[in-house]
Specification:
The protein has 368 residues and is an alpha/beta fold. The protein has a single domain, classed as Alpha/Beta hydrolase fold, catalytic domain (Rossmann fold, 3-Layer(aba) Sandwich), CATH 3.40.50.1820. It contains 9 helices and 10 strands.
């Protein structure tokens, strides 16, 4: 186009069509995710009620110590992973990125990111989510995993998975995204999705800053050379972008775990060039929110090493929140992957394949 020439109307139309398609895709995904969330929360509620009824029955039949043992609320009773080595401490950090804003119903504001940080703690390995517990000295500094939650939930729904990672020797930071979380002002909103990679990047920087400080509860806790990102659903989209999209790529990220995620809608720049971080993608084969084809699209484009964990007959959220035996498989496979590519324990690669190939439950597609 020559200087001073009028803009090409065809180009404007194409851009408008692309933007409308991206908005339509976001709306459709949001609707599917709302429906899936309602179904999942109902299933969790039913399971919780059944558990309470079952426990009540046990206490009623005999009171010889059952109630007393049940009162130890910090005891982890669902350990599946053989990698559990540590107690798990938890701290809540109020992180605020003042260099960027979020558009709230009341107007623009700095991006506030309440972040749940789980970490290897001193004490018996059965103790979980002990508030402000002293960090375990042996084994540190520890690798960092930054985890992104899905649409219209908070990190709390993934507690068991995040606990398993921390118990296996990782610092796990899970921020609450400003507009996509369940309690967002005005209700959850996917319009902020493309800003979330910057949120995860900010959390990485803040955790490294706190670890590099001469004193403080996180001082010396994190190894800055061993960082992974992970996420589920929209949080998986976010982590994928931070690991592989040229618009967001953070070279500090050394591996990515994407749980039923996809490429950011309407955003170009995914390169998947050789030498980029190893990838583990997981996908429920019956997931109607993030369809298997969406995971296959980026998995096929990615360079090796890459792995795909197919959860046979599983849906969108339950395998990462409460559903067994799928959750146990996800725990073991993700830990084996991270131990291999973040901790450098290549001898556990065989465990990744063994733990991922469970008849009738899951299978691993591997390209090491």
């Amino acid at each position: 186009m020559s200087p001073g020439a009028p803009p090409d109307p065809r180009g404007r139309r194409r851009a408008d069509q692309t933007e409308r398609a991206a908005r339509r895709e976001r709306r459709e995904r949001a609707l599917r995710r709302r429906r899936a969330l309602v179904a999942t929360l109902l299933a969790i509620t039913v399971a919780a009620v059944a558990l309470v009824v079952a426990r009540s029955g046990v206490v009623a039949k005999g009171t010889r110590g059952h109630a007393a043992r049940a009162s130890h609320t910090h005891t982890h009773t669902h350990t599946r992973s053989s990698s559990r080595a540590f107690a798990v401490g938890i701290r809540m950090l109020d992180l605020v990125d003042r260099s960027r804003t979020v558009q709230l119903p009341t107007g623009p504001a700095p991006r506030a990111l309440l972040t749940y940080v789980r970490y290897p703690a001193s004490g018996a390995s059965t103790r979980t989510d002990v508030s402000d517990a002293p960090a375990a000295g042996a084994g540190g500094p520890y690798p960092l995993i930054v985890f992104g939650h899905g649409y219209a939930v908070t990190p709390a729904i993934y507690a068991r998975l995040l606990q398993a990672w921390a118990a296996a020797g990782y610092v796990v930071a899970a921020p609450v995204f400003p507009l996509e979380n369940a309690d967002a002002p005005g209700g959850p909103n996917e319009s902020d999705l493309s800003n979330q990679p910057g949120d995860m990047q900010f959390v990485i920087s803040e955790l490294l800053r706190l670890s590099a400080a001469p004193s403080g509860p996180l001082a010396g806790l994190i190894d800055p050379e061993r960082i992974a990102v992970a996420g589920h659903s929209d949080g998986g989209d976010t982590a994928l972008a931070l690991a592989y999209d040229s618009n967001f790529r953070d070279t500090r990220v050394k591996a990515a775990v994407i749980l039923s995620g996809a490429e950011l809608p309407g955003v170009a720049g995914f390169s998947f060039a050789p030498g980029e971080p190893p990838l583990l993608a997981t996908q429920g084969t019956a997931d109607i929110v993030n369809k298997p084809s969406e995971t296959n699209m980026f998995f096929e484009a990615a360079s090796s090493p890459k792995y795909r964990l197919d959860l046979l007959g599983a849906g969108h959220l339950p395998p990462y929140s409460h559903q067994e035996p799928q959750l146990g498989v996800v725990e073991r496979v993700t830990i084996a992957f991270l131990d291999t590519y973040i901790k450098g324990r290549t001898q556990v690669l065989a465990a990744l394949r063994a733990d991922g190939n469970v008849r009738g439950v899951s299978r691993i597609v591997a390209d090491p």
